[in-house]
Structure formats: structure tokens, C-alpha cells
């Protein structure tokens, strides 16, 4: 049984006005490559992808580089040497969504990198800024420290776009 809010019906699609329906869970969306769900399959050594059957898990075998697991089932990275890696190639066009609460700031730290594709989402600047790249950098978005932010990024060459929360998208 899938975890749902108790007020939602126990089926995959919620009704939308007019009688149509839409996906309620990420794995209901066609073309999904990977999904890392808070609190599910998550340890300090691995974060299990809920879609690929384990082929795209985030892992960190070195104890000193592992993040800590908080009481609210989130991973906390120290901003010095904590990171996790996954074998995941970002092939354009792609979309990345992240729910991020940045508590410290280090310019150049990468939140997501697409290996050799030149794609990345990384911290930049002297104040909290995030720059997304799909071969070339887009304009910066500015998350608020110690606040949960939604970062969305569509990587598609010169048509790429990034957005923070519901702010104006940058290209």
C-alpha cells in the first residue's frame, strides 16, 4: 500500500474538476527516471531510488563523508565533505525537482550533477544563489537560508529554464 494523506481516496488518481484525473505520486508520471523519497529507503550510506529497482541509488560508503539522518527523516550534509553519488546521466530534455533546505552556504557545491553532460544545479555567489546549467549557465535563483525551497529545472539546451518556488522563472 502506498503512503497517502489520510483524506485522499486509496487510489492512484484524484478527481479534478470536470471529471478528469491527474497523477498523485511521482511514479504515476510517464517517463520518470528516478525518485528519491524522504524517509523511504534512506540511510546515511544510501538513498534508494523508488523507480529503477536500485540502479540509480545515491550512495556513500566512506563514513566521514556520509550525511547525518535527522529526526524528521531528512539528510543533513555538513557543507564540508558530505556527499552522495548516483550513476545517473541527465539526457536533455530532462526535469529535476528538489525540495531543499540550505542551512549553510559554500559557493561551488553541487546539488545535482549530470556527469559528463555539463548539466548541474550548484550553489554560486557570495550570498545564497543557485545556478542551473544545461551546457551553459542560466540566471541565478536565490533561496532563503533555513527555509524549505522548491527548485525546478528543465534542462533543454538554449530552451532551459529554472525556477525557485513560485518566483519568476529564469532562462
Question: Secondary-structure blueprint of this entry?
Answer:
Layout lengths: L12 E3 L5 E3 L22 E2 L10 E2 L8 E2 L5 E2 L17 E8 L8 E4 L5 E6 L4 E6 L2 E5 L6 E8 L5 E4 L7
Antiparallel strand pairs: 1-2, 3-4, 5-6, 7-12, 8-9, 9-10, 10-11, 12-13
Question: Could you explain the architecture of this structure?
Answer:
The protein has 171 residues and is mostly beta strands. It contains no helices and 13 strands. A hairpin with a 5-residue loop joins strand 5 and strand 6 (75-76). It is globular and about 35 Å long. It starts with 12 loop residues before the first strand and ends in a 7-residue tail after the last strand.
Keywords:
single chain, 171 residues, mainly beta, four-stranded antiparallel β-sheet, 0% helix
Distance between the termini: 40 Å
What would the average pLDDT be, to the nearest integer?
A: 79
What Rg do the Cα atoms give?
17 Å
Largest sheet: 4 strands, antiparallel
Summarize this, please?
The protein has strands at 13-15, 21-23, 46-47, 58-59, 68-69, 75-76, 94-101, 110-113, 119-124, 129-134, 137-141, 148-155, 161-164. It has 171 residues and is an all-beta fold. The protein is globular and about 35 Å long.
